[in-house]
TrEMBL record:
InterPro entries the record matches: Haemerythrin_Fe_BS (IPR016131), Hemerythrin (IPR050669), Hemerythrin-like (IPR012312), Hemerythrin-like_sf (IPR035938), Hemerythrin_metal-bd (IPR012827)
Gene3D superfamilies: Hemerythrin-like (1.20.120.50)
The organism of origin for this protein: Paenibacillus durus
Protein name, UniProt field: Hemerythrin
Keyword Cell membrane recorded: no
CDD domains reported in the protein's UniProt record: Hemerythrin
NCBIfam families for the chain: bact_hemeryth (NF033749), hemeryth_dom (TIGR02481)
Record domain Hemerythrin-like: where: 10-123
MF terms in GO: metal ion binding
Keyword tags: Iron, Metal-binding
Lineage: Bacteria, Bacillati, Bacillota, Bacilli, Bacillales
Family affiliation: Belongs to the hemerythrin family.
Length: 135
């Protein structure tokens, strides 16, 4: 997947973190395409755990600072994503890497990028632009 300007919310720190996620997503896709998804899944899950702590903290801090009206809903989506990542990690630890876990991680990352970042996170940038326009 290629980064699109339309994914940007207008906050460099957040946009940079989103681009970082896309790089990891593409690395995982490439590994899966080359039948190396099994080898890459644990590394990708570790990245996601670290990423969610840093990125969600940054994003939620920003939303709190700007009094974003949908903060609670956004936090719930973040918590659901973390739960999915932890469930995948647990499945890999207890059952080993399977085609199913690899597919689920692919789908989770793709859905997150397309749905959450491109739609939900865009609302943050839109809200900030509205607030600037009112000022």
């Amino acid at each position: 997947m290629a980064w699109r300007e339309s994914y940007e919310i207008g906050v460099e720190k957040i946009d940079c973190q989103h681009r970082q996620l896309l790089v990891k997503l593409n690395e995982f896709f490439d590994a899966c395409s080359n039948q190396q998804g099994h080898e890459k899944i644990e590394e990708t899950l570790k990245f996601l755990k670290d990423y969610t702590i840093e990125h969600f903290g940054s994003e939620e801090g920003l939303m709190n600072d700007i009094h974003f009206p949908e903060l609670a809903e956004h936090q719930k989506e973040h918590a659901d994503f973390v739960k999915t990542v932890l469930e995948l990690e647990e499945a890999v630890k207890t059952k080993g890497v399977s085609v199913l876990t690899t597919i689920k991680l692919n789908r989770t990352l793709t859905d997150w990028l397309i749905t959450h970042i491109n739609k939900c996170d865009k609302l943050i940038g839109d809200y900030m632009a509205e607030q600037r326009a009112k000022a």
